[in-house]
Task: inverse folding
């Protein structure tokens, strides 16, 4: 019995340390090294996101193979739900919200709607509900994860690339690009990508992994176009590849 228990512990522990993540799935190109993310940072969270099995297709919220599947390098193991809500900007807000929720930085979870209304998680968790750009007290407080996801779906419904573009900060020096940065152009439609990992060579040239969702809502996919590693110095013909430019580079902090 003791041997069986030990074996089970080793199996679980071994599975944990060998978990397939953004950081472990993709090796740096020859001549490049990993840019270490600060402990507890948004960057570290993105790098440690678990991935679905290799060769998994990117699926829409309906369970159909997405039209962007041809660009799939990996699929992030995160729910997409069964509504057409978690599209491009929504996926980035989901990742940011999930990170802050797990850090219990509840007061930092807030996103603007396209109308300009600031939808903060604290109000929602305390029992307030959105109505015509105002909060109305409705239910008892609930900081549980299911309620957090109801809050995120509300954000998805009323926010988008236009609002996210306005609330992000421009990166003044593109040489300082880091994991967690966003390439974004707000519009109808607009689009955005999020940087999932960064590597650098001895000349301080950087390459990076990108992820996106799309329309209709789909799995968050790590992208590839010949290679999963992108650069602002090399034009990419991926859909909306023109956004992979310092002109569109922004970040949360």
Result:
């Amino acid at each position: 019995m003791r041997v069986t228990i030990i074996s089970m512990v080793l199996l679980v522990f071994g599975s944990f340390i060998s978990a397939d993540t953004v950081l472990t799935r993709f090796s740096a190109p020859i001549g490049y090294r990993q840019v270490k993310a600060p402990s507890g940072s948004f960057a570290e969270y993105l790098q440690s996101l678990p991935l679905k099995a290799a060769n998994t297709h990117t699926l829409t919220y309906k369970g159909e193979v997405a039209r962007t599947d041809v660009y799939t390098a990996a699929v992030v193991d995160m729910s997409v739900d069964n509504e057409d809500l978690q599209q491009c900007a929504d996926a980035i807000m989901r990742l940011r919200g999930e990170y802050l929720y797990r850090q219990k930085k509840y007061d930092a979870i807030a996103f603007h709607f396209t109308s300009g209304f600031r939808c903060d998680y604290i109000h929602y968790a305390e029992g307030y509900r959105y109505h015509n750009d105002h909060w109305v007290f409705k239910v008892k407080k609930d900081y549980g994860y299911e309620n957090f996801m109801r809050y995120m779906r509300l954000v998805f419904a009323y926010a988008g690339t236009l609002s996210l573009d306005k609330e992000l900060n421009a990166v003044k020096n593109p040489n300082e690009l880091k994991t967690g940065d966003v390439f974004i152009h707000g519009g109808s439609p607009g689009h955005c990508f999020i940087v999932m990992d960064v590597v650098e060579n001895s000349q301080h040239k950087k390459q990076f992994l990108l992820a996106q969702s799309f329309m209709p809502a789909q799995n968050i996919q790590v992208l590839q176009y010949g290679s999963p590693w992108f650069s602002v110095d090399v034009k990419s013909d991926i859909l909306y590849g023109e956004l992979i430019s310092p002109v569109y580079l922004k970040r949360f902090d």
